[in-house]
Design goal:
alpha/beta; Rossmann fold; seven-stranded parallel β-sheet; 11 helices; binds 1,4-dihydronicotinamide adenine dinucleotide; NAD(P)-bd_dom_sf; lipid metabolism; Enoyl-ACP_Rdtase_NADH; enoyl-[acyl-carrier-protein] reductase (NADH) activity
């Protein structure tokens, strides 16, 4: 360990169980000396085992529905109280599509499902940042990261309306990143992660074949949740202070490969 986050304080959204990318990130941030508040939707608290993670990392838990502005305002002010000052890093690791959950095809969306999924998966990132911004809660040279997927740029048919949600999320990172950068010297980036076996990931139809395909297409192999935690730590650290408004591919090279020999050999 390198003490990369010694003295830094943050908020981590989206740890549900030990497979969650946010869970691995929280453990890794803790190892690097960072302290943080853990948060998730009240309903998720009942499903997962966030208490175990909180105990392990010495973190407090504040429930917040990331679509609810009041919850977010409360989360931001309580976090500053608990952590004893402004925030240095925030991880938004939240995603959910009601259309996917209910098995609705992309060409047969139910639009109130679409709107709900967009609110949870995409607009929530704006809501989180607006809450931090209005409370002037971020320290200078702080870092905000959200997780995304390459279906925002290229078509993966079974990714359904999450593709559109991720495109919106990535755009919000650029747009808010401008204001957070010029006014508060805070950076905002998205990490475009390999398919990863988590609750959200395995909810996508055909996930098992898909993750194997990505593995064979990526020169370095898929990036795991643990790899993603490492990368996120680097983005929270002072070593990446001038990286902002970027969508950063963390996928073993997948996004720049047309076809790999292993895939050709299968035909
Ligand atoms: P996960 O299922 O462990 O995490 C998703 C989290 O979102 C859960 O903790 C859930 O409780 C939380 N959430 C849902 N609704 C919420 C709400 N209203 N308010 C607050 N939190 C809410 O799955 P995973 O894979 O760790 O997902 C984290 C992020 O990574 C998501 O943005 C996902 O789209 C993204 N991602 C995942 C990939 C994968 O293959 N697993 C690939 C690329 C990106």
């Amino acid at each position: 360990m390198y003490n990369l986050l010694k003295g830094k304080k943050g908020i981590i959204f989206g740890a549900l169980d030990e497979n969650s990318i946010a869970w691995k990130t929280a453990e890794r941030v803790h190892q690097e000396g960072g302290s943080f508040v853990l948060t998730n939707a009240p309903i998720a608290m009942r499903m997962g085992n966030l208490n175990d993670l909180a105990e392990k990392t010495g973190a407090e838990i504040i429930p917040a529905d990331a679509t609810n502005e009041e919850d977010l305002a409360n989360l931001v002010s309580k976090s500053m109280e608990i952590l004893g000052g402004k925030i240095d890093f925030v991880l938004h690791s939240i995603g959910m599509s009601v259309n996917v959950r209910k098995g609705r095809h992309y060409t047969d969306e139910k639009y109130d499902f679409t709107a709900k999924g967009w609110d949870v998966s995409a607009l929530s990132f704006h809501k989180v940042m607006q809450s931090l911004y209005k409370a002037d809660a971020m320290n200078e040279w702080g870092s905000i990261v959200a997780l995304t997927y390459m279906a925002a740029q290229r078509t993966f048919p079974d990714y359904n309306d999450m593709a559109d949600n991720k495109a919106y999320l990535e755009s919000v990172a650029r747009s808010f990143g401008y204001f957070f950068g010029t006014e508060k010297k805070v950076r905002v980036n998205t990490i475009s992660q390999s398919p990863t076996p988590t609750t959200a990931g395995t909810g996508v139809k055909g996930f098992d074949s898909f993750i194997n395909y990505a593995e064979k297409m990526s020169p370095l192999g898929n990036a795991s949740a643990q790899d993603c935690a490492d990368y996120t730590v680097s983005l929270f650290s002072d070593l990446t202070r001038k990286v902002t408004m970027q969508n950063l591919f963390h996928d073993g090279g997948f996004s720049n490969v047309g076809v790999s020999q292993e895939i050709i050999d299968q035909f």
